[in-house]
Amino acid sequence: MENKTVFICDDDSTIVDMLQMLLEMSGYDTIIETNSLNALEVIRESRPDVILLDLWMPMLSGDELIKKIREHEELKEMFVICISASKDGKDVAFQAGANRFIAKPFDINDLLEAVESSSNGDR
């Protein structure tokens, strides 16, 4: 069976590096992008199984990116996990159309469970 591919978008390269290492050690393929303005195009080209993105990023915020994903017919069913340190982040993420929300700092097992749960629903 092919590995699940996770697209990671966060403007903090330290978090991106940590997430990439964690996910790859757990058997996932990863695609990373630190500039949210490039994210939609990368998602359209790569068609990842899971999208993992930060809510608060400069230029194009995570909630705006989720809305753009949900507007595209070919992308709208993608599984999106939103991460944020913001107390209000959960409401913002779900209103934008996220499938899951994980608060920073997050528990590694919670994150892996959220990525794994994406295969339990329709993509």
Explain what the structure shows.
It is a single chain. The protein has a single domain, classed as Rossmann fold, CATH 3.40.50.2300. Helix content is 42%, strand content 20%. It has helices spanning 13-25, 36-46, 62-71, 89-96, 108-117; strands at residues 5-9, 29-33, 50-54, 79-84, 100-103. Helix 3 runs parallel beside helix 4 (89-96). The mean pLDDT is 93. The modification 4-aspartylphosphate is found at residue 54. Keywords: Phosphoprotein.
End-to-end Cα distance: 17 Å
CATH superfamily: Response regulator
- The gross shape turns out to be globular
Helix content: 40-55%
CATH fold call:
Rossmann fold
Low-confidence stretches: none
Q: What is the makeup of the main sheet? A: 5 strands, parallel
Q: Supply Rg.
A: 13 Å
Q: Give the H and E element order.
A: EHEHEHEHEH
Look at the structure and give the CATH class.
Alpha Beta
Number of helices: 5
Note the beta-strand portion.
Answer: 15-25%
Strand order of the largest sheet: 2-1-3-4-5
Report mean pLDDT, rounded to a whole number.
93
Q: Compute the number of structural domains.
A: 1
Q: What is the CATH architecture annotation? A: 3-Layer(aba) Sandwich
Sheet/helix structural class: alpha/beta
According to DSSP, the number of beta strands is: 5
